[in-house]
Amino acid sequence: MSSSVKLFAGIGSDALAQKIAKHYGQDLGKSTSRKFSDGELYYSFDESIRGCDVFLIQSTNGPSDNIIELLLMIDAAKRASAKTINLVVPYYGYARQDRKDKPRVSIAAKLMANLVQAAGATRLMTCDLHADQIQGFFDIPVDHLIAGMIFVPYINNLNLDNLIFAAPDVGSTKRVREFAKFFKADMVVCDKHRKRANEVASMQVIGDVTDKNVILVDDIIDTAGTLTKAANLLKEKGAKSVRAFCTHPILSGSAYENVDNSSLEELVVTDSIPLKGSSDKIHVASMAPLFADAIKRIHGHESISKLFEQ
């Protein structure tokens, strides 16, 4: 007899969780999340989950309360005798700290993996990790979804001619190359040099974008400094238009101002992280259908890779 599926939302991803549940075809489970007067978090399930396949939906973007709440959700599910505890983490926070790039620093991406596993998670589903090798930090199954499955139809509907893809930095070349390969288009690279984190000192374009409709692709947009500098430079180099597709809209600091004042025609993001502000240039493509389909496949023991073929 197949176990039942129950979906629960953390506060940080409640809006996306509601959409996922709607596409899945059932309501979110009942739960209580609140804070004590000193800020300490409390989480409880308000219905039985004994023997169920539980899916906990929560991105681990800032503030750190989102991470702590997810850990409490996992622990509560384990103690309530859930059959499986499946994490749906649309945005996996701290993924940018995935190695020791200088002495005496933390590998935070590995620490996050240790925490959720120690709490009792049995599976993780996420999308567009900052580095694919982070999957190796886990000793539980990891389903790594790709936002390109959402972005490709959007790009097709634009009906752009002379299409070319651009990497806003060298680290994005692999991701951008996949888009270029799918659309049988060329790609260029914006090579940048940083003075310090979140501050670009200089940038140059490797490749020709004259009279091209350029699409920049990246996994994260934080302050939007790199992306908007790349967009402005591409326009200066003769691009006909410049658009950007970024999976996770952190959009901190002066990001909205940077986007509004840039040469970008539009910035397309997902709802992996709730937007803090608004801009006429920013459009949101929902991850809900993608995650709902993946949850059905996991519960039905079907192949997740079939999603990529579609």
TrEMBL record:
Q: Which UniProt keywords apply?
A: ATP-binding, Cytoplasm, Kinase, Magnesium, Metal-binding, Nucleotide biosynthesis, Nucleotide-binding, Transferase
Q: Which reaction does it catalyse?
A: D-ribose 5-phosphate + ATP = 5-phospho-alpha-D-ribose 1-diphosphate + AMP + H(+)
Name-wise, this protein is ribose-phosphate diphosphokinase
Which SMART domains does the protein's record reference? Pribosyltran_N
Q: What is its EC number?
A: 2.7.6.1
Q: Where is the Ribose-phosphate pyrophosphokinase N-terminal domain?
A: 5-120
Q: Does the keyword Metal-binding apply?
A: yes
The lineage is: Bacteria, Pseudomonadati, Bacteroidota, Cytophagia, Cytophagales
Q: Which GO terms describe its biological process?
A: 5-phosphoribose 1-diphosphate biosynthetic process; purine nucleotide biosynthetic process; ribonucleoside monophosphate biosynthetic process
Q: Which organism is it from?
A: Reichenbachiella agariperforans
Q: Which PANTHER family match?
A: RIBOSE-PHOSPHATE DIPHOSPHOKINASE FAMILY MEMBER, RIBOSE-PHOSPHATE PYROPHOSPHOKINASE 1, CHLOROPLASTIC
What Pfam families does the database record attribute to this sequence? Pribosyl_synth, Pribosyltran_N
What's in the GO CC field? Answer: cytoplasm; ribose phosphate diphosphokinase complex
Q: Which domain of life is it from?
A: Bacteria
**GO MF annotations in UniProt:** ATP binding; kinase activity; magnesium ion binding; ribose phosphate diphosphokinase activity
Keyword Metal-binding attributed: yes
